[in-house]
Amino acid sequence: MVRSRKDIAIGMSIVIPCFLVLAVFVYGFIGWTLTVSFTAWEGVLPNWEFVGLKNFATLFSTQRFQIDLLNTVFFSIFFLGFCVLFGFTLAILLDKITTGAAVFRNIFLFPLAISFVVTGVIWRWIFNPSVGINALINSTVGVNIAWRWYTDTSSVCGFHIALIPVVIAAGWQLTGYIMAMVLAGLRAIPVEIFESAAIDGAGEFRKLFNIIIPHLKPILLSALIVLGHISLKIFDLVYTMTGRGTAFVTDFPGIYMFETTFQGHFYAEGAGISIIMLMLVAIVIIPYLYSILKKERV
User: Fold this and answer.
1) Among 2, 6, 83, 251, which residue is least crowded by beta carbons within 10 Å?
2) Does the pLDDT at position 1 exceed 60?
3) Which alpha helices (H) appear in 23-129, and where do they start and end?
4) What is the crossing angle of helices 163-188 and 116-126, to 10°?
């Protein structure tokens, strides 16, 4: 099909502005942030003195940033595990339900329509040691519960107990995403495969591990990549729910960057934190994109 010059001009007039906006407001600002991270900019007035990797060395030697990175690792592991476990289970159950499936599906998808800020405020009240779950149990069961939840400063092998409420809150909001992805994948599996497996005498567990999971691997991988990049740059939910917490038990690089840059006015150090967060996300995203492009070429 031969396209006219008019069609090409119309297409370029649509695409070029998008590329310009992307170049300026995404890659341009990334370049600006990277430049600032190599300077000694502290305070409102710019200071373009080049200090190389000094800001990054300072960050990695700071106890708070070390705690933040460890919190990010633990949070990502438990958050992804929570979403996959419950999302996959809900999808399997909903796939078996014939009556009322649409109602339950909408109920489980509803948290996706709520912002992280609202979720943080709601779960902050729920896990409040004074008026949340503790008070409900004390008033109904009569047992004196004094769990500290997100105010707990204890840890197990480096994992802060206070992160558990944060994992539950984030998992509650995004479990529906995994459920929707898995449910769509289940509906795409040909019925003939299950019928053949049933004729061969395959039980539910064999169908799960030999048919369902192999077919859903690409979908689960894509969903994990999306949720993984969210967990690595988590900010708004934690900021509204717990903040950095006592002794930084619920602190994350995003909160550290916000306080360093916009409250402490240490712009170079804040830019360094942003670049490190970008690199963490890139470590997750780039291999995935490369594998997709490689498959498309083949």
Assistant:
1) 2
2) no
3) 29-37, 54-60, 63-96, 101-109, 116-126
4) 130
